[in-house]
Amino acid sequence: MTKIKELRDWRGDLLSRIRALIKKADPEMVEERKWKKASNAMAGVPVWSHNGIVCTGETYKNAVKMTFAKGASLKDPSGLFNSSLEGSTRRAIDFHEGDKLDEKALTALIRAAVALNKSSGDS
Question: What is the dihedral of CA 97, 99, 101, 105, to 10 degrees?
Answer without folding.
Answer: -140
